[in-house]
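Below is how a single chain appears once it has passed through the pipeline. First comes the sequence as given, then the structure the pipeline wrote out for it. We keep one example in the README because the format questions we get most often are answered faster by looking than by reading.
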Amino acid sequence: MEEYPFVSVIIPALNAESTIGLCLESIKSLDYPAGKLEIIVVDNGSTDRTREIAESFGAKVLYKPKLKVGALRNCGAKIANGEVLAFTDSDCLVPKSWLIEAVEILKDGNIGATGGGYLVPENATWIERAWVVLPQRKHGETLYLPTGSFILRKEIFEKIGGFDEKLIAGEDDDISIRIRKAGYTLILCSNCYVLHLGYPKTLYQVVKKQIWHGQSMLFSIRHFFSMLSILSHLFTISLILMPIAIILAIKYSYWPLLCPSFFIFMLPPSLLSCKKFFRNNIRFDKIALLHLFIIYIAYLCGRSIALLYVYKALFARFRKFF
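Resulting structure:
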């Protein structure tokens, strides 16, 4: 027992009654001493049975409505008793060896954090399967760890200042960068991959999720000048130009204007789908590439709507000064 550090598992949740029970059941089934483990669920103002279910599993439940996800994770970390913090999400199922593997890796003082990627269930839709392109699990040094499986020593978490509470989304990318800047290595562990139940199952859900995710883009210099941000802006411009070009073509027979508008529209989803596909796929599969292209059109439509919301809010703030 003494060789195992005390671990605090921290889970933000909002109206997660359909998955929180499965998540907590998987944590209770871990190959890790129960006396060395606590579960903290940080509820973001659920109106369903999320808190009731979490309490039935013996979890500590904090009620923190209207906070961004980074702040929710930080609230859990503040009351955590563990020398190791293990973050996951309410729609993730962890494997039995999740913590055993992680604490072994963290014995190396040069390693700042470890964890795994996401897997999809066997009954996943074509959208879920296309998005999680690579079925096999990677292992080794990485630049980024998702917060669905993010495990680190509490002293490092406090040293780098925890999660950025201003971000609406992308807090895992941000903290990964800050850990590496502090001189530590991130390790992707093949036995720490989690089963993710919350991937969008329809194109509408892809759009809806990216409207939420995309709203953090302009509030971080790094995100604003990222390739994804640039392509999202380019795609947004194309959505504005396309109807104008169509009207001018029909009304004034100015058909050449359609070509550059169509090119601008096609470029962002083409680049993003090819990047994801060829980075993760071993063999060429035209259908999988086509599926990714379709998903990225929906993805960028959501990002475009998010950008319009954010610029509208910024414009409203700007007007107050005049």
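The domain at 7-196 is CATH 3.90.550.10 (Spore Coat Polysaccharide Biosynthesis Protein SpsA; Chain A).

See the next section for the split statistics.
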